[in-house]
Amino acid sequence: MSFCCGASMIGTKGTLRHLQTRIHNVPLLFCPVCHQVDVHYLVEMEYEILAEYAHGDGAAEIDFEEYVEDRHGDALFENCVSSESEDPLELVRNQIDSSLDLLMAAKALNDEEWQTQLKQRLSVLSKRRTKLRNRASSVNN
Fold it and tell me: What is the pTM of this model?
């Protein structure tokens, strides 16, 4: 599993900018709490090489999937707790459940700093859950 600020990161594909080049369909890990985005560690070297070549060629946009062989397949996001293709509300609920479990462990260990971090994360996730619920109810009305 990949973690950021204690939250499990979400597996997805997206677009990154390297200098003047936009690279599409890059396997990414995304933190739902702090919004940190990392190139998936299994393709990080391929991404860096492709980005440098694309920039050197002056390409404005390229597709990662066209140039890099998908030798990882389903294993690429196998270690992610969630993927972007899941229902966003369910994804946030799972993150909240995990954070609550960790908060219980932090309390058992009397780790005040960890408890504070988890409470902040829960606050962010709770706000996101409320937004998603409001958005869903406005679409259904």
Answer: 0.61
